[in-house]
Amino acid sequence: MNTVRRPLALSFALLIAGCALAGCSVRVSDAGAATAADTAASTSPTAAAPSPSPSDSANVRGVVDDERMAKLQRSRWSDKVTQHVACVDGAYTVDRNADALVVEVTGDCREVTILASAATVLLPAVDELSVQGDGNIVIVAAAREIVLDAGADANLVGWESGTAVVKDAGTLNGTTPIS
C-alpha cells in the first residue's frame, strides 16, 4: 500500500511545484456550487480568453499565457542544457534519470518517449512524441503526433512549425504551436 502512496505523493508534490512556478492557483469547491465570481467570469465578454485560429483549435489545449509561452522559447534553454543525447535507430527515451534536467536530443528521430518528470526537453522534428512524465517543458521543432498519457500531468508542450495532432488524456497540460 505504501508503494502506491509514494508515487502519488510525488506526483502531487510535482503538480503543486509546477503550479507554483507557473503562477497557477488551485481552488477546491463543492461540486456544482458556483460562486457569483464564477458566474460573472463565465458570462462577462471581457473575461473570455482569445480564441485560437480555427486550424489550431483542435491542437491547443490548456492555458498557455504569455508567461508560459516564454518558457517555450528554445533560446531560453540552449545555454542550460545539462545532457546532450542523440537518437539511435530513429528512437529515443528520455528516462527518469533525466528528472529535473535540461536535455537536448539531436539526430534523426521518428519516435521520442519522455518518462522523466520536471525536465526541459529540446527536440528536433519527430513523427511521434509520447509524454508519460509530469511537469515537463517540451519544445519540439515539429511533430506529426503528440500523445500525453493519462498519467502525464502539468506538462507544457510546444512545436515550432507544422501542425501537430494532439491527444491529451492527462490533466493540467498545455499544448500550443510556438510562433
List keywords for this structure.
five-stranded parallel beta sheet, disordered N terminus, 22% helix, six-stranded parallel beta sheet, 179 residues, single chain, alpha/beta, globular
Write structural notes for this entry.
- The chain is an alpha/beta fold.
- 22% of the residues lie in helices and 27% in strands.
- It is built from four helices and eleven strands.
- It has helices at residues 2-22, 36-43, 66-70, 74-78, and strands at residues 83-86, 91-94, 102-106, 111-114, 120-123, 126-131, 137-140, 143-148, 156-159, 165-168, 174-177.
- Strands 1-3-5-7-9-11 form a six-stranded parallel beta sheet. The protein has a five-stranded parallel beta sheet with strand order 2-4-6-8-10, with no helix packed on it.
- The longest helix has 21 residues, at 2-22.
- It is globular and about 35 Å long.
- The termini are far apart.
Instruction: Report Rg.
Output: 17 Å
State the order of secondary-structure elements, H for helix, E for strand: HHHHEEEEEEEEEEE
Shape: globular
Helical content stands at 10-25%
- Name the structural class: alpha/beta
Stretches with pLDDT under 50, minimum 5 residues: 1-6, 19-57
Kindly report how far apart the N and C termini lie.
46 Å
Largest sheet: 6 strands, parallel
Q: Record the strand order, biggest sheet.
A: 1-3-5-7-9-11
Strand tally is 11
Q: What portion of the residues fall into strands of 2 or more residues? A: 25-35%
pLDDT averaged residue by residue: 78
SS field, number of helical segments: 4
